[in-house]
C-alpha cells in the first residue's frame, strides 16, 4: 500500500512527526498572524486540504464504506439476476425434457447415447472377480453344506 500523500511532501518544510494536533496548532498560530479576511480564506482552504488528505488516506487503507455498499448492492443484484435466469431457463429446460417423453425414455436414450457396453471387457471383469472372490465363495458354500447319512 502506498501513501497517497507522499508525492506532495516538501522537505523544505518541517514536520511534527505523527503529532497532527501539534501541526494544526502551528498552522493556527501562523493563520492568526494574517488579517481577519485572509484568515477566513486560509482556514477554508486548509480545511479542504485536511478533508482531502483524510479521504485519500482512508481510501488507501481499503474500500470506503460507500464503495463497499455499492459493491454489496451490485452483488445482490447479480445474485437476483442469476437466480431469476436459472429459475426461468432451467425450469424450461427440464420441462422440455419431460413434457415430450416419459422420463424413463429420456434416461434410456441418454444411457444408449453415453454408455456403450462394448467399451467394457466383460470377460476380463468376470475373470478378475473370480480370481479375487471365487475361492472364498466356494469355501463359504462348502462350509454351509450339511450331510445326513442314513445306513440301512
Describe what is shown at a glance:
The protein is an all-alpha fold and 152 residues long. 70% of the residues lie in helices and 0% in strands. The chain has five helices and no strands.
Give the SSE layout:
Layout: H1 20-31, H2 36-60, H3 65-100, H4 103-114, H5 122-143
Please tell me about this protein's structure.
This protein is mainly alpha-helical and 152 residues long. Helices cover 70% and strands 0% of the residues. It is built from five helices and no strands. The radius of gyration is 42 Å and the shape is elongated. The termini are far apart. The model has no long low-confidence stretch (mean pLDDT 82).
Number of helices, counting only DSSP H or I runs of 4 residues or more: 5
| Proportion of beta-strand residues | under 5%
Q: What characterizes the major β-sheet?
A: none
What's the helical proportion of residues?
Answer: over 70%
Structural class: mainly alpha
Shape annotation: elongated
Instruction: Please mark out the parts with pLDDT under 50 across 5 or more consecutive residues, or reply none.
Output: none
Alpha-carbon distance between the two ends: 104 Å
Q: Average pLDDT, to the nearest integer?
A: 82
Rg from alpha-carbon coordinates: 42 Å
Give helix and strand order, one letter per element, not per position.
Answer: HHHHH
DSSP E strands, number? 0
